[in-house]
Every structure is written in structure tokens, then in C-alpha cells.
């Protein structure tokens, strides 16, 4: 049986239409283009129905034939959505109050919630911000069991959270919670501070440990619901795949990226750098953790996978960007199969793939050779790091690099011939580094001599300078005491050695102050 052909819905200032494809892309003959400006478009969850509103009415058709199912005289509608079983169409317009409450969760100060995807029983995650020294918390409930605190499936409390973003996995077994503060009190980041928490419906929870400091740009669940990818850290950002135990599985190293997109089948992952980055994309085979292609789509404001797991669409839409609007349909090997440039006097507002039931498109083996196309590919050229004029004619060294690049690394136990260290082993290793004992038969590490007698002065005439000199002499005296302890064979701490190694610098500062430099 031949696989179905997905459709792409396109909404813009010149109307709404359906594009049939890929790989061959053309306007659907079953759907007559609506020339009026579309306000909203939506497919049913199984992709059999398509609805849109155009400022005059709401219409629903069968995608396969284009037959009109129903039209509604609702000119003020600005949003619509089909129910999970495709039997009800919900529309939104200016708010009106109706008493239709079937059940209610009695929990004070709820500021965010997220409904689980998939079939019933439905679950909901709710967030309550902390106040007066009390922590914030996220609780998971299963509808309609909302009766009291003991009815919660799981509870996770934490500090440092002004707002959160909650993301369910496909099977509704766990939620990833990105907690953010508006201000980073340490001053390390302009964007505030962020932490990632894992909360499962079986009651388990954990903090996801991210080895690089900086913002969390994106979090994405694999459709298999057992792994997730996080893009994080100051640029160039890291990307890491974690399992449901929050253990790192694969580290993609560093690169210009801020987003992650799994294919519907979960066998391919695209890491991308959109927005203020230049549209670089890295396509990875998730099972082999091998890179497939590295195309580039500049000025992209939207990315989405086709349900077939073979194709993607990138688009530049208004109002995010009002120039160079248009969209491209790609094969994941980097080939552009179809391209549409919106006329300069028109705007593109949205593109949307037709969804299909799970299993409609089985997973296919990953290809590494680019698919043929007249439009070719747009392989990203290696970016050249900025180098000051004085270094441009000299060999590049590690010290001349703006950022230290990290290569991809398989983090699974035994992947590189070694087993991953347990948390206890890592803690013991850290403790062994933080303190050590000088052996009797080993010479102590070399340190600078004490301050010479010529540095002893009564006053230089400036009270502020005298104060600085006094503080420096106190530090030098403390270092001399540490030397005596070392000579006696006492245990040395790592921070003590660091203070000793700073002695030469302190002496220099002292000399400059006393000479009036």
C-alpha cells in the first residue's frame, strides 16, 4: 500500500491554500484557494479535516476530496482547534462568560499549567510560584482526580524561579520544567538564571545537571519519550541528549545553535541556529550518532518536520520579518526540493503540515547521500573566527582562538572503552583533588621569596595608598605562615597553594605602590 501524500497549508496576505507534496510540490486541485486574508488555520489531529477562518466565516473541509463539511457564520473568530477525537471544533473570539465548568482544581496562586498530549486519561501539570521564603513547586495530576494534595501524582519544589516552561513527553509519563529568574544575582548572565527539572508521573524527580554555564535555549523530547535533548550554555552552545534517568547519553560538543527538532519517528535530530544566528543546521542520525548533513537556511523564523520523517519546511514569515518572506521544502540530506518566494508587496504569515495518525509513516533507514534536485543544496560554509589584524599572518594557536571548541562525544558507558564513573566515584575523585598531603621525600612546590626588607616603609604620604600597602603586607605575612606549615609537613589545602603562587604578583603590586607608579 502506497504511503499517503502530506499537504502543507499556507496562510498569507494573498489568501489561504493547500500545497500537495513532497517530493513533487504543487497546489492541491481539491482545494480552491481562498483569496481573502486568513486569520487562522488548523488541521484535525488525524489530518483528515482542515479548517480556516477568513474574517467572514469559519469553514471545514475534507482534505482528501475538498468537500465542504460545515461552515459557520463566525466572522470575529481569531483561533480554532479540533478536539482530540476530531468530533468537536472549538473557536475563539472576544470573551463571553458561560457556566460550563465540569471539574475544578482547588489550588491557590496557580500561574501556569500544561495539559498532557495523547489519549485519556488526561494529565495536567500546574506551577505555583514561591512567596515569603517558601519554594515554588510543580505538581502533576490525573483528571478528574483533583481532590486534595494527596491526589497529586508527583510534586517537585525548587527555588530560583520567576517563571517556568513545562513540556510533556508524547506518552505523558514525564514533564521537563525549565525554571527561569529575571536576574542572575551572581552577575554571570544578562539573561537571568535557568535550571532544568525532570518530573515523572511515578513520583520521581531530579535536577538535570548541565556541564556548561549559560542560558537554556531549547528542550526537546524524542517521540519515544525516553530521551530528550537540551541546547544550553554561552555561545558556542552545547547540545546533549539525556535519558529518563537524566544521565547524559551523547554530547554534540559546541556550535552555533539554539534549537533542537526530532523527526516524528525519533530517528533523526536537527540542531539549528536561528534568530540572531545564521541558520546553520546539523542533521544527525540518532541511532548511530553520526552527522548526515549540514545545510543552512538564513533568516528562518519557522522550522517543522513533515510527518513522513523525510522532509522539513523552513519559512520566513511576517511579522517576525517583513522582508524576504517565503518558504523552502527540504530533504533532510540537505537538498532543497521546492522554493517559494513571496512577492515583495505581499506577506507570508504561516505554514502548517497536515498531521497523520501514529504509524502512517514507518521509520525508514537514514540516507547519507543527498537526494537529487534541480535546486541543489545549501551546505553551510565553515565559519571563520575573527582574528585581530596582528594575528592574521601568523599560525593559529590555542591562545588566539575566541572560543574553545568541543567535539562530539558519546557518553554511554563503554562507548569509548571506559565505563562512566558513578556519582560516588566522581565525588571521591573531587575530594582527592581538593586536598592532599606533602610526602616527606618530596620537595615542596617552588614559591617566591619573602618580601625584601627594602619594602618596609612608614608612609608614602597618601592615606589611600598606605591602606593598600598595609593590606598587601598582611597577605604576604599570611603566605609566610603557610610556608612554615608546609616545611613542617602539615596537610596543605589547594587554595593555600594558590595563595602562595600569587606571592610574586603581590610583591609586584607592593613595589609599584611604594614607588608611586
TrEMBL record:
Gene3D superfamilies, per the entry: YVTN repeat-like/Quinoprotein amine dehydrogenase
The record's gene field reads: eif2a
- Biological-process GO terms, alphabetical: regulation of translation
A UniProt-annotated Pfam family: eIF2A
What is this protein called in UniProt? Eukaryotic translation initiation factor 2A
Q: Which GO terms describe its molecular function?
A: mRNA binding; ribosome binding; translation initiation factor activity; tRNA binding
Q: Which UniProt keywords apply?
A: Coiled coil, Initiation factor, Protein biosynthesis, Repeat, Translation regulation, WD repeat
What are the record's GO terms for cellular component? cytosolic small ribosomal subunit
UniProt lists the family membership as follows: Belongs to the WD repeat EIF2A family.
| Record bears the keyword Transcription | no
Q: Where is this region: Disordered?
A: 364-467
Translation initiation factor beta propellor-like domain: residues covered: 156-351
Role noted for this protein: Functions in the early steps of protein synthesis of a small number of specific mRNAs. Acts by directing the binding of methionyl-tRNAi to 40S ribosomal subunits. In contrast to the eIF-2 complex, it binds methionyl-tRNAi to 40S subunits in a codon-dependent manner, whereas the eIF-2 complex binds methionyl-tRNAi to 40S subunits in a GTP-dependent manner.
Amino acid at each position: 500500500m502506497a504511503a499517503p501524500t502530506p499537504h502543507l497549508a499556507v496562510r498569507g496576505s494573498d489568501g489561504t491554500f493547500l500545497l500537495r507534496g513532497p517530493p513533487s510540490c504543487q497546489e492541491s486541485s481539491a482545494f480552491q484557494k481562498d483569496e481573502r486574508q486568513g486569520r487562522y488555520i488548523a488541521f484535525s489531529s488525524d489530518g483528515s479535516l482542515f479548517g480556516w477562518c477568513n474574517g467572514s466565516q469559519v469553514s471545514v473541509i475534507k482534505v482528501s476530496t475538498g468537500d465542504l463539511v460545515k461552515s459557520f457564520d463566525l466572522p470575529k473568530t481569531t483561533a480554532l482547534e479540533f478536539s482530540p477525537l476530531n468530533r468537536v471544533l472549538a473557536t475563539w473570539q472576544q470573551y463571553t462568560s458561560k457556566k460550563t465548568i465540569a471539574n475544578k482544581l482547588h489550588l491557590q496562586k496557580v500561574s501556569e499549567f500544561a495539559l498532557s498530549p495523547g489519549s485519556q486519561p488526561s494529565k495536567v501539570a500546574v506551577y505555583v510560584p514561591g512567596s515569603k521564603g517558601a519554594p515554588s513547586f510543580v505538581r502533576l495530576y490525573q483528571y478528574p482526580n483533583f481532590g486534595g494534595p494527596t491526589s497529586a501524582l508527583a510534586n517537585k519544589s525548587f527555588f530560583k524561579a520567576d517563571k517556568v516552561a513545562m513540556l510533556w513527553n508524547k506518552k505523558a509519563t514525564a514533564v521537563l520544567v525549565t525554571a527561569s529568574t529575571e536576574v542572575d544575582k551572581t552577575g554571570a548572565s544578562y539573561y537571568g538564571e535557568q535550571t532544568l527539572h525532570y518530573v515523572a508521573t511515578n513520583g520521581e524527580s531530579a535536577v538535570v545537571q548541565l556541564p556548561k554555564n549559560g542560558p537554556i535555549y531549547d528542550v526537546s523530547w524524542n517521540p519515544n519519550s525516553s530521551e530528550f535533548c537540551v541546547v544550553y550554555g554561552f555561545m558556542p552552545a552545547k547540545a546533549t541528549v539525556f535519558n529518563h534517568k537524566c544521565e547524559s547519553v551523547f554530547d554534540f560538543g559546541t556550535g552555533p545553535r539554539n534549537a533542537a527538532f526530532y523527526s516524528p519517528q525519533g530517528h533523526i535530530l536537527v540542531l539549528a541556529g536561528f534568530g540572531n544566528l545564521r541558520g546553520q543546521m546539523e542533521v544527525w542520525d540518532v541511532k548511530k550518532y553520526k552527522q548526515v548533513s549540514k545545510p543552512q537556511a538564513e533568516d528562518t523564523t519557522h522550522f517543522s518536520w513533515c510527518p513522513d520523517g523525510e522532509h522539513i519546511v523552513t519559512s520566513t514569515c511576517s511579522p517576525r520579518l517583513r522582508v524576504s518572506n517565503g518558504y523552502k521544502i527540504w530533504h533532510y540530506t540537505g537538498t532543497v526540493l521546492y522554493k517559494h518566494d513571496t512577492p515583495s508587496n505581499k506577506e507570508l504569515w504561516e505554514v502548517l503540515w497536515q498531521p497523520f495518525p501514529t504509524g502512517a509513516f514507518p521509520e525508514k533507514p537514514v540516507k547519507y547521500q543527498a537526494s537529487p534536485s534541480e535546486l541543489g543544496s545549501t551546505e553551510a560554509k565553515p565559519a571563520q573566527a575573527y582574528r585581530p589584524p596582528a594575528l592574521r599572518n601568523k599560525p593559529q594557536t590555542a591562545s588566539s582562538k575566541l572560543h574553545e571548541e568541543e567535539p562530539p562525544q558519546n557518553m554511554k558507558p563503554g562507548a569509548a572503552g571506559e565505563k562512566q564513573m558513578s556519582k560516588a566515584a566522581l565525588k571521591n575523585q573531587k575530594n582527592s583533588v581538593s586536598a592532599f598531603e606533602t610526602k616527606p621525600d618530596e620537595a615542596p612546590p617552588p614559591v617566591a621569596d619573602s618580601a625584601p626588607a627594602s619594602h618596609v616603609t612608614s608612609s608614602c604620604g597618601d592615606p589611600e595608598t598606605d591602606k593598600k600597602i598595609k593590606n598587601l603586607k598582611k597577605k604576604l605575612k599570611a603566605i609566610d605562615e603557610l610556608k612554615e606549615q608546609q616545611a613542617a609537613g602539615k596537610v596543605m589545602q589547594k587554595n593555600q597553594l594558590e595563595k602562595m603562587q600569587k606571592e610574586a604578583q603581590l610583591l609586584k603590586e607592593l613595589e609599584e605602590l611604594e614607588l608611586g607608579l
